[in-house]
Amino acid sequence: MRCLIGFFGLPRSLHHTAGSVRARIYEPLRRAGFTTARVAHFNLPEIINNPRSGEFDILPAPPDGRLLDLDLCWTEPQMHASIAAQYDAARVYPDGFGDDYLSLANMCHQLRSLERLWSLLQLLGPTEADVVMLLRPDLLYLDSLQPARDLEPLLAGRADLIVPAWQSWGGLNDRFAFCSSRTARIYATRIQLFIDACQELGGMHAETFLKFVAACHGLRVGQTARRAVRVRANGQIAGNDHAMVATA
To answer: For residues 41 and 8, is the Cβ–Cβ distance under 8 A?
Structure first.
């Protein structure tokens, strides 16, 4: 059995999170008999300045792929021009995050990173028999993966996509995903449906967008109770994730 693992987005806190990836993702897969290949696409802004997340004027360091034992790592400067079409399309509608579209821009950058990640995963020659995990690098994984339980719906052909069961906000949680290789392409390249979703949904929000994409492709969606909390560039846990840490 082979599991392809792809990381995407902003590697703001790798030194805080990489240990949990190794212990709670990599090691359970190894014990279950999976071979793994690990790739990443990271977007790197000149500065992290996000009042909503409590990050102010932080200079991000280039990510150290050795922390995640990556086979391939592609880091690109974060440029607004690369997401301008999607950003401008969503700005026509009310700001669902309430921070003058800053979180919208960050979401667009993350979706673009996902699309770039798919081009790396293709280099690994994904097959129908592979399981694909798409993970954010800034998450502290609280629960160890249990492959026999958490991946069984995929391996048995009963689900195409497995997402976290918590914080769905009326859609589907997009923190991380376990999926088939066909569904990994759909999940990772969903930015291609971004403008259509804005028009259909009357705005843009991450969880409702993922639900829209799953419905467009008729994906069978399962859920996992595995928990992961966001760690900011300053090492702090995101405010609305504190409850999960308290029960870990």
So the answer is: yes
Bridge partners, 177 (sequence order) = 134
- Continuous H helices in the chain: 14-21, 27-31, 84-90, 102-122, 147-150, 152-155, 181-188, 194-201, 206-216, 242-246
C-beta of residue 204 within 8 angstroms of C-beta of residue 87: no
In this prediction, residue 130 has a pLDDT band, given cuts at 50, 70 and 90, of very high
Predicted pLDDT of residue 248: 66
**Are 170 and 208 a contacting pair, CB within 8 Å?**
yes
The predicted model scores a pTM of 0.95
With a cut of 90, say whether residue 185 has pLDDT above it.
yes
Tokens in use for 21? 């990836």
Instruction: Give 134-186 as a DSSP string.
Output: EE-TTEEE-S---HHHHSHHHHTTS-SEEEESS--TTS---SEEEEEHHHHHH
